[in-house]
Amino acid sequence: MIINFENKITTGKHVLVVPVFEGDFKKDVKELPNKISEFLSKISENKEFSGKKGEKIYTYIEDKNLPEKLLIVGLGKKENFKYRTAKEVGAIIGKQLKVSKAKEATMFLPAAAKNFAEGMFEGLLISQYEIDKLKTKFTKKENNQTEKIRIFTSVEKGLVEKSLEKAKIMADTSEYIKDLVNYPSNIIDTDYLVNEAKKIAKENGYKIEVFRKKELTNMKAGGILAVNQASKKEPGLVVLEYKGAKNKDEKPIAIVGKGIVFDTGGLRIKTGPHMDEMHQDMAGSAVVLGLFKVLKKLNIKKNVVGVAALAENSLGSDSYKPSDIITMLSGITVEINNTDAEGRVVLGDGVAYSLKYNPKSIITIATLTGAVYVAIGHRYSGLIGNNGKMRSELLQAGREADDLGWPLPLHPEYKKAMESKVADIRNNDKETQSIAGSSKGAAFIEKFVDKHDWCHIDIASTAFTDIPKPYETMGATASGFYMLLKFLEKY
Ligand code: BES
Ligand code: MN
Ligand code: ZN
What we know:
This protein is of the alpha/beta class. It has 2 domains: 153 residues, 3-Layer(aba) Sandwich (Leucine Aminopeptidase, subunit E, domain 1); 316 residues, Zn peptidases (Aminopeptidase). It is elongated, with a radius of gyration of 25 Å. It binds ligand BES, manganese (II) ion (MN) and zinc ion (ZN). Zinc ion binds next to strand 9.
């Protein structure tokens, strides 16, 4: 979808989109021909339309100064119009245009909506996302995506242009992350993700380190190696470095993502239909790649180290086995008592490697536990950490970006549950394993963060959805990306 400006309303067979706030319609549309305000007066007098958020009227108009069709969309009350509502309404417009098979449209941007134009554009741009890139001439249908939207507005061009530019970056990156997460592991495998990281490094001039099987063996990254043991493909540990702070020596924030390209559960094989979704178990790493796609473009004023811990939790005669005791990169020994608790094992090595950069703080992001979904449901990612301030800031960033988190506890007893009789720690609790699963997963990771400030984001509840938000589609959501970007921008 291309969005650009026009100074006058082009007439023709396309659709004119007119978003209006609840209440005082006339004032909002004063820049448009009278016909529009007359129409609005009529439908509001007849109580056919009041401007509530998401309310729609789609009709033909006869006026030589206007396009052939008209889509009126309610923005809700002015005082409630924020980033989230703007993004939702943008998406409602985008989805309606698609249903109406509108290839072209002109959207009027009311002056009173200008502060959240970015959200509206972003919603528009991502609303028509489709998972059809692998359909071919045999079955590919015309998907009715809108090709062109012209913005007509009295708002200063500079402001709208800036909003539009940011919205495009956000939408492109959101699509990039969603594609990585939505497409399966025979395509998005460890090699694929390594290559993406290399491309991103090259495009942006970032420093990058890539460790594959040989190097991981030499450095004794026993966690990543054990999880990947039964895979035909090589594991990977990728480290990207961005220096955006004024002081290039400022300590970086390390962001470590889980990158399990497929999680069969290993010998503790996943049963039921749930396994099918496990190509999405690299969503944490996809967020790390997405962030590095935008850090430089958005001129983020921080030093950031991004780590992707990549492996496939496959199964076969080579699999790591329950009762195995492995030595992690940090030297910590781990009793494997559940091969399906693999995310924490690769993250342990990822975190240990990030310490080399002497980070100011560490963030781990992972589809770590099914338990987080049970605990807080599909609208929140779980936030667990050792620093209250950092966690509050992430929660606040999440609220501002409509990418919500919710705090979960780290009680000393949950940490104790990860102790082992035969090794330093174990990767799963035994005695009370049906409770506080997300906290205990995090407690395992905490053993590797040492004394650093750290927060863990469990996106297993949000990374993939069958209950999409108004601006989402089924499948991947890119959750965590918006929260972390806002965090890096503001805190
Ligand atoms: N990748 C899964 C977690 C997951 C579940 C992500 C559902 C997305 C949707 C993770 O590796 C896993 O299997 N976790 C186990 C942990 C348990 C063995 C302690 C789980 O949640 O059952
Ligand atoms: Mn697992
Ligand atoms: Zn997993």
